Amino acid sequence: MNSEQASKTSTPPDTRTPVIVNAKTLELLIPTSSGFFEGFQASPEHRVIIINDPKFHWTRERIPFDLWVQVVSFMKWSQTANKSEAHCSLFYNTELNIWDAWAFPQLCVGMTVRLLEDDPDYAKDRARFGKGWIMAGSVHHHCESAAFQSSTDSADERDKDGVHITVGKVSEKQVDLHTRQVWNGNMAPCEITSWIALPHWTEAVPPGILTMELRRQILATVQTGAFPEEWKSRTRTTIRPERRERDLPQTGHSWFKGQIETFLNGLTGQFQTNLTQMNNLLGVSNTDAHALSKEDQELRGNLKMAIFKTRWPSLYCEAVLEQMIKTNGNHRDLGYEHILNQMD
Ligand SMILES: [Zn+2]
Predict the structure, then answer these.
(1) What is the whole-number distance in angstroms between the Cα of residue 278 and the centre of ligand 1?
(2) Is residue 81 within 8 Å of 233, Cβ to Cβ?
(3) Mean pLDDT by 10 residues, the chain (344 residues)
(4) Residue ranges of the domains in the chain?
């Protein structure tokens, strides 16, 4: 690239109005010149208020209690049915001022859940929320663990305005809840009661009795009920079997062998692990995975997701996993022949 091209692609100048603050006194400074001096002086027109903990809140309708019951019921169902996490997206219609929720196609593996945006059902489901609808948050659960925001959660949620709720101890009568809100990339903890409406019967309860603690308890102790049947089918606990025939490879054996080798080496770097650890983690069943540490559960989910995301034919994904588990650590001993034989 020559210098002329380089200057064209350099970042444009920042044209925003600068505000200058005295780092020592935190006064707002204005550029001043008197003919004798020039520099900065504290603005006589601005009063500075220093806030340690900037607050913001949602000003529109709260999520109806009935919808919250559906979401929690789905979370509880998924733990019973899949023994793994599940995820529900929240939507707000800015014209009608109503809320809705939907479970999109998702891969649920133990203590992880990832939305499958490439899944054919995803686009179909997303089309339900057209004009007027905005994504306004999410709910997912952490199986029998306490509710908290993991580093993965934080990274997933930071660019998504709205409320994000983790449900913990999902099988217990009173679940554990962790709630935070995001606005323009700013994330802050918040009260679940500022996002979810209490059931109507609470209107008859004198405000003095309806303490914050009681409000939280009411939202954490819901009587489970029905939720959209389609949500169940959106949870995938393994690679979909129907991919097998459809995705037969068009490329040659040596290409595939090279792909596996590069891929496995890449994974060890990407997740700062080694092949032995990978084998051990991937060899654990979903049920037994609950006994792993939180970090191991997260790593296991990430590895499975990475393999899934290659979009190799599932036959090969499974073969890769199987061989990795069997060969205990030395990828050079991977049974490539075993994998390649299955291509015929
Ligand atoms: Zn989480």
Answers:
(1) 21
(2) no
(3) 50 84 90 89 89 85 97 97 95 97 91 86 95 96 91 90 96 96 93 96 90 95 95 82 42 56 79 79 74 86 74 55 50 40 35
(4) 3-42, 65-236, 245-343
